[in-house]
Amino acid sequence: MIERGEHTDRVAVLQQEVEQLRSAVVSHALIDQAIGVVVTVGGLRPEQGWEVLKHISQHTNVKLREVARVLVQWPAGGPLPEVIRRALPRAVDHVRRTDSDHSCGGEEDEEAVLRDRAS
């Protein structure tokens, strides 16, 4: 038989787990939306958008959730921090260069458009 104290402890653990899962769902949705922004702006595939987010986070020392948050707000006029504004075109260029399966004509023109939009 489970004692009252054990039951209370188990409920507390389960409540904490539920909160963590809720937070993960929100973060996942935000990251998916940010991938959509990167895909749209950079003319990339979704898996490349994910790589761009990771690259920006790793090379700017900004948490992935924060990178995603500002990128999602950016199309609606939200500010794009300088460090992310500079990292975005570099990350897109890096992903394009390392992705041998993706060949797209006019990459230089797309890079210029991306830089203009990030400014």
TrEMBL record:
It comes from the Bacteria. SMART domains: ANTAR. InterPro entries: ANTAR, CheY-like_superfamily, WH-like_DNA-bd_sf. Residues 94-105 have a biased composition (Basic and acidic residues). Residues 94-119 are annotated as: Disordered. Gene3D superfamilies: Winged helix-like DNA-binding domain superfamily/Winged helix DNA-binding domain. Residues 11-72 form the ANTAR domain. This is ANTAR domain-containing protein. It comes from Streptomyces lannensis.
